[in-house]
Amino acid sequence: MQGVITEKLKHSGDSQRRKDCPLIIGNTPEMVRIKKLIPELNRLNETILVQGERGTGKDLLARVIYTKSDRRNNPLIKVHIPELFREYVNEEEHDKDEEFAFRTENGDLREILSLADKGTLFLDEIGAMTPTFQAELLYFFKDTQILGSEQGNQGIRIIASTSADLESLVADGQFRKDLYYRLNVIKIKLPPLRMRIEDIPQLADFFTDTYCRKLDKSHYELSDETKKIFCRYLWPANVRELEILVKNIVSQENEEELVQKLYLHSENENLLNNVDSPFSAEEIAKVKKYLEASNNLSLKDVSQKYLNRVEKRLVKKALDSTNWNRRRAAAILDISYKSLLNKIKYYELTDAR
Fold it and tell me: Which of helix, strand or coil describes residue 162?
C-alpha cells in the first residue's frame, strides 16, 4: 500500500497552515463561485464529489477544502484508486481466489479508515473502483464503529474525485447506484482550462513565479505574445499541461522554441477544425450515384480518393494562411519542406494571389 496512500500529518501553528494552504487561481465566474463555496463547506460534514477532466485541479481543490476546514489539524489521507487496484492486478492470488481479493480489500480499507479517523479521506478517481471495493466502501459508510464515531460518517470527512462520467457508469451497471448517491451529496464541477481562457495569463504568471522560487531563478516574465498563444491553445491536459510547460520554460530559459511548438500545434488544430467540406453537395450526389451503380465497389479506392481530396484542401489552406510561405506551411502541416513541394506539384496547386 506504500505509494498508494499519502498522509498529511498535523500542522504546527497557524503560520504553518497559511504557508501550506494551496491557492485556487482564477476569476472566471465558475471559479469565483467555487472559491465562495469553500467557506460554506467548513460548516458541513457531507461527502463532496469533485468532477472534472484530468489536470483540472481536483487534487488541489481537495487540499484547499481540507486546509480551510476544522479538520486541518487531523490527517488528510489520499488514496489514488487506480494505483491501488493496479497492485491487486499484479497479485497472482487475485486471479486464483476471489475471496483473497475480498479479504485484501477489506483489510486495506480498515487500515485506510483508521488512518483517516477524525480527519479527511480523499478518494481520487473513484470510477476505477472494483465492484468488491464499492460494496466494502458502502458497508463502511454504515459501520459507525469502524468510522470511529457514534454519528456514523461524521468521524471522517470524505472527498471523492473522478474524471469519469459516473452517471454513465451507473447506467451501465459498472458503478453502484447506492454508492453513487452516498458520494454525490455535494457536487463541485471543475471546468476545463479551455472554458476559462481569461484565467490563463494569471495562471501562467503564477506558475512562472512559483518555479522561479523553486529553481532559484531570478525574475522571469513571459512575453505578451506567448500569453496570446496560450489563450488560443486548447490545453487537452488542462492546467497540469500549462504548469509543466511553464516549468520547462523557466528551467530551460528557452521560451521561443517551446512556445513555437505550441503555436504550430495550435495552428494545426485550427486548420483541421476549420477546413472546408472536402466535397460539395454536387460532388456528394455524384459519389452517391456512383456507389449505387457500381457492382465492383473498391472501398480502398474510394477511401484513397476521399483522403486525397481532404489532403489537397488542407495543404491549400495551410499555404493560403501563410501567404504561401512554404516553410511555415510545412511546419504547420508537420511535414518536411521537400514533402510539401511534392504535394504542391502532385495536386497542381498554384498561388492565386
Answer: strand
Q: Count other Cβ atoms within 10 Å, centred on residue 75.
A: 19
For the domain spanning 275-353, the CATH number is 1.10.10.60
Q: Which CATH number fits domain 194-274: 1.10.10.10, 1.10.8.60, 1.10.1660.10, 3.30.1370.10?
A: 1.10.8.60
Given a cut of 70, is residue 144 above it in pLDDT? no
160 pairs with which residues across the strands?
49, 123
DSSP 47-67: -EEEE--TTSSHHHHHHHHHH
Q: Over the chain, what is the mean pLDDT?
A: 78
**171 or 286, higher pLDDT:** 171
**C-alpha to C-alpha distance for 1 and 263, rounded to whole angstroms:** 42
Domain parsing of the chain, residue ranges: 5-191, 194-274, 275-353
pLDDT at residue number 222: 93
Say whether pTM exceeds 0.70. no
Cell of 14: 497557524
The answer to whether 119 touches 78, Cβ cutoff 8 Å, is no
Q: How far apart are CA 227 and CA 115, in angstroms?
A: 44
CA geometry: angle at 106 spanning 119 and 186, to 5°?
A: 45
Q: Domain 5-191: which CATH class?
A: alpha beta
Retrieve residue 197's grid coordinates: 481562457
